[in-house]
């Protein structure tokens, strides 16, 4: 790896998903020379990467840990939503239901989100044991990815399309002092991490009813959600299928998803005709990791992957940790 000197402030990032892009923006704004190398770049529509297909509801998760990273991201997105609506960050009311716990003692984020309020048990959908609402956010990837890419291009971050097979290859290609491994699913091979796993998701986009402007999610024994898109339409989902690598939509799932959505929303999408109203079926593969996210330094490599279906929720928090690790490493070597 090229040595870190006052003249070599180059950081190479493997991966142009939401973790790689947010890391790049914090790094370039801190004065580093950033090169991104990725097999898939913003604008590509392929299931080989997850970021374009994410539901990207910025609902923290009570059980996945790394709460400070989630909280950092949420605060950053609130700032973005206020500063620039072109970022695709939209404020909306979020309703969450769970069917696997009896109270909200595990809901650590109830103190950090505005207008948090519990839902009476008589108002819960069938099967749900707790529910609550709060003022939250959703990100529209079709707006956010072009927005942040343009920010990076304006700051002269270089994008290189390439499939990097090793950290040595990345070093040779970029002459970087430090390499950030934000390769998502690629980390299984690149970092020899057997705990890195793929979790298949499938959703469908339907036209938006004028009066539906909130997000609803039910978790526990199932994974069901409704997320309005800033660019139009509503995402109905979903599933969580580890080890399923089928890239084509499972048409039988459409009926199952719609049934669960209507059960959760008390029939608010009973007007949907699957053959008529579904404008797009969406399949994506979440880059998860047993044990949760990995953000740590290993020599001249900084690993940042494993967020699974919470890539947007973790993104700025992981990026901020990446920046701190780069700065600490850099100071130690000049």
Automatic annotation (TrEMBL):
InterPro entries: D-amino_acid_oxidase_CS, DAO, FAD-dep_OxRdtase. Residues 11-320 form the FAD dependent oxidoreductase domain. One of its GO terms (cellular component) is cytoplasm. FAD binds at residue 164. PROSITE patterns: DAO. GO terms for biological process: D-amino acid catabolic process. Keywords: FAD, Flavoprotein, Membrane, Oxidoreductase, Transmembrane, Transmembrane helix. One of its GO terms (molecular function) is D-amino-acid oxidase activity. D-dopa binds at residues 286, 309. The chain crosses the membrane at residues 12-32. Signal peptide: none annotated. It holds the Pfam family DAO. Its cofactor is FAD. Belongs to the DAMOX/DASOX family. This is FAD dependent oxidoreductase domain-containing protein. It comes from Penicillium freii.
